[in-house]
Amino acid sequence: MSQLPLLAGATGFEPTPEAAQARLEAVDPAAYARTRNALDGAVTRLSPYLTHGLLDVPQALAAIRTRHHVPVSHKLAFEFGWREFFRHAWRHLGEGVLDDVRPPPWPGRYAQAMPADILEARSGVPAIDHAVRELHATGWLHNHARMWVAAYVVHLRKVHWRAGADWMHAHLLDGDLGANHLSWQWVAATFSAKPYVFDAGNVARYAPREWQCRGTVVDRSYEALDALARGAPDVGPEPLGPRGARPATEPPPVSAEPTADTLAGLRALDEAGWLAQVRAACAAAGETRVRIVHPWSLGEPSEGGPAVRVGLLHAPYHSRFPWSARRWAFVLGAMRRQVAVVHLGDAHRALGALADAGLEPVVRDALVPGLREAIAASARRGAVVEPVPREWDDPDRFCTSFTRFWNTVSR
Q1: CATH number, domain at 120?
Q2: For the residues 77-97, what does the mean pLDDT come to?
Q3: How far is Cα 328 from Cα 259, in angstroms, rounded to an integer?
Q4: Of 48, 103, 153, 339, whose Cβ has the fewest other Cβ atoms within 10 Å?
């Protein structure tokens, strides 16, 4: 197996509040504004903590503003705004984010599966192969690299954006269906006005030397790349040179269930055992409220919250969107700091069983297929549903572009 060097600082996402706080304290807004487009720039790397609820946007901005001046016009505030825009779009589109919002720019038939050469990091385009290895090895990727990968996959290899988005979502520690899938759609021009393409000069400007793409399919003008996006079939991997076949790296497997290793320290119970455990804990604590800890609510509970806390994983979601072991380890590592038992099952049934037992779930909302609907149904039966905190108001009318959204909320 061939190994390529990873970007400095790409690894090391500990699933703890202390790690999230350390990243907050390291944020340098001025450096971020200057260098954010470079792969070794001063980006925040807060996204896994924001996606999984160890932090929220208002909390993060407030902490940064205790040390730095970050007005609404600042580039850092702007990027936090994108996160809230994607949540706004998800609220209005729902599972529509998983389908083309607009017709694609190419009239041909896009492939429905990722090519093996891309997954094995042997496309022959260095920026793509390095990015794929980085994603598989660390569970994180700079946004610029994500856009390069998406543009190459969709516009040059003619793979439907959904196949690429599902693959990337499975491996990203910060994989969020709204942000990830709509970002792929933005690149694909099914959620934007034109295809996003990149050239070798863009890579040369923002990436390390070993990522350079001179002499490859992307070493041409933007006009030529746009024409390929709109009118050409799959260009295929780069032709093999005199050195012959390229070494492949096996992509990490993904699964709908956590492994025994990632579950270490947690007891996984079926619905009956889980409910019995919850009832016994509530009886011992003299408590009827139960804090539901799910993968998008991993922050430490506030003082005065329910004393009884249990973990819940919505199995139908994970069957549709499996995760890498690295992502399972991140989520369950954070979860085991709060709970001792977890149930992988149908959240509709589990939350309904708590209500039938006379217990009152307290749960943070989540824009996650199936879980969102289960939480709404539980609310109708008396559950306390906490909204995800927002820095800016969520407009009632759907803003079809970030510009429209930002002009509305940042006044």
Answers
A1: 1.10.579.10
A2: 95
A3: 8
A4: 103
